Amino acid sequence: VQLQASGGGLVQAGGSLRLSCLASGLTFGDYAISWFRRAPEREREGISCTSSRSTSTWYADSVKGRFTIFKDNAENTLYLQMDSLKPEDTAVYYCAASSSCFVGMSYWGKGTQVTVSS
User: Fold this and answer.
1) Which of 49, 67, 85, 91 could bond to 34 as cystine, CB 3.0-4.6 Å?
2) Do residues 17 and 5 touch, judged by C-beta distance below 8 A?
3) Rounded (to 5) percent helix, strand, coil in the chain
């Protein structure tokens, strides 16, 4: 099983990025897929999740209204559309798979760096 996050980069405040999480070796629709981030000197934060079968989504207050999570089950890819980015969104972003959002993560992907300049 492998999760590969990509799409990070350097963007100015107010800009947008779209992160991708490509999964291989698992049936995407059977898992809840979560996005986490870790900023320097801060604890890892769960910011968004889509449940298995995409029946529900969840967003942290810090990103609600700015970020959108969506899946393409046919492509085994999860996306995180990030709009209106702020410098405080600067972090390494990770995707992870589990049976329930943010709980008991079974698989982690390598992170992708997002840097938002002011």
Assistant:
1) 49
2) no
3) 10, 55, 35
